[in-house]
Structures are given as C-alpha cells and as structure tokens.
Amino acid sequence: MPLAVRWPFPAGPPLPWALASRLVTGLVGTYSCVWTRESPAGAPPAAGGGWRAAGGDPPFPAAPPGPVPPSGYLNRLRVHNAEVLHDLVERRGPRTPLLTLSNHQSCMDDPHLWGSLKLRHVWSLHKMRWTPTAADICFTRELHSRFFSLGRCVPVCRGDGVYQRGMDFILEKLNQGDWVHVFPEGKVNMGQEFVRFKWGIGRLLAECRLDPVILPLWHGGMNDVLPNAPPYVPRVGQRITVVVGRPFSVRPLLERLRAEGTSTVEMRKALTDFVQREFEALRGQARALHPAP
Length: 293
Known about the structure:
- The chain is α/β, with parallel strands linked by helices.
- The protein has helices spanning 15-35, 82-91, 109-112, 119-122, 135-138, 142-150, 165-175, 200-207, 222-225, 251-259, 264-286, and strands spanning 52-53, 76-80, 98-102, 131-134, 153-156, 179-182, 213-220, 239-244, 248-249.
- The strands form three sheets. A five-stranded mixed β-sheet has the order 2-8-7-3-6, with helices on both faces.
- It is globular and about 55 Å long.
- 40% of the residues are buried.
C-alpha cells in the first residue's frame, strides 16, 4: 500500500526543521509527563548493572523490581526500574543504539508511555526515540504527516513487508546510534492475548551494523486512560504501571546464526522469536505488578 503523502523527512534536515522537531517533541513529551507523571521520588537503583547477551545469565541477581511510588498530576503512574531506562537514554555510548519494545494497549501508548521520562529527556531531541507508525492512521494528510514526522514518527505501510522505505529509515537511525521504540505486535492488542511479533524487528537486529541494546517494557492501564471504545476521550485518575525489563544483546546469537549459514528469512525468524521469549518472560512478571481495576 503506497504512502498517501509525500515522504516527510528532508535529506540532511535543515535547522528550521530540527528546531520545529524539538518543539513538537518537547511539547508532546511535556503533555505526557503531565498526563501520566511519575513521582519525583525515584526508586533505589537495582543491584548491579549492564546488560546481558542472548542466552547468557543476567549480570545481577534476580530481584523484585523497585517501584516508583504512585503519584501523578492527572493519572497515577508507577514505574518499576525506571533508572534502567533513564541510564540508557542518557549515558549509553554514541555508537550504542537503543531498541526498546513494548506491548500495545491503546492508540495513545505513545506518547503517554514517555511520562516515565524526565523533562530533560523529552526536550533533548538527540535523546528522544524514533518510532515506526501506521501510515494508514497517522500519515493520511499532509498536515498530519508534518506533525507526526516532526514528532519522530516514521510512516510504515501495512502489508509492504520488512523491506520498505520506513523500515530502511528506522534501520539507518539504529546504525547512527539512535533510540528506536517499536510495538512489535504490529497493532493495538485490545484483548492482550499472545500475538506473534512482526519480523521487522528481526530484520533490524540482523542488519544493524552496530550492537543494539534491547530493552523490553511492559505497561498496564493505558487502555483505561484512553479506552478502545467510543467516545475515545482520555480519562484522569487512572492507575498505570510501567515495568522496565533487563537490557540484553542478541550479538552472540546473531554471530552463531551467521556462522551456521542461516538463511536471511530463518535468521529474522530466530531473532524475532528470541526477543519475543524475553518479552513474554517480562510480561509474566509484570502482570503481577499491575493492580487489578
């Protein structure tokens, strides 16, 4: 399905475009921090640090995630292990891409999810995420296209497969060491049932020239803030939980697959399946942390 609008990103973005992007990203991020704001009293850091390789042991002992006390301006957000996300956003090296992934409960998961960040993050353009976005929803008109692209959303056309311009663009951002966030279920999963991840994440990991840090996130309650039924009006006073998992790398798995002469398709599948197993392990732990309505 072809993109209904012009490709929204200029080559070598000029200064006015970069300034406009910072403004849009910062304002939307500030809205998210107000709408779903974590308490200023952070949790103590988890023991240890660093990330683990695919198939390796965690670098620190398993322990219950440390919560941020529930608070908020309009809703009540509890973030577990927020410092892991913050450290990777702020302090990873310039040649270390960050690939975060999460479940998809609501059309407003992004940007509401980034209420878990600090204001200094959302106003720092080079630190904020890029994210593939459904072209048939967000890129149907030139005005909408301008807004979402300035907010670092990249159009991806459903049905066009893993090789399309939007995915090429996202891959290049990873190759530049940027942060990319994906919803690998590929749709709003209203029933929160098991959905096989899209293979696009496997392509990103197989073809990235660098070694991305992969960070799974699970959240609950976003569909209470913005219900998936009419009239689609955001609510206040809702409880939201975000659980930040343990960062890991697939480099050892990728090198083994290459050494074995694994085909491109099988490599994408193996990488995607591995990431999904890691995410499902987090989901099982995280659901116990989200309070029942």
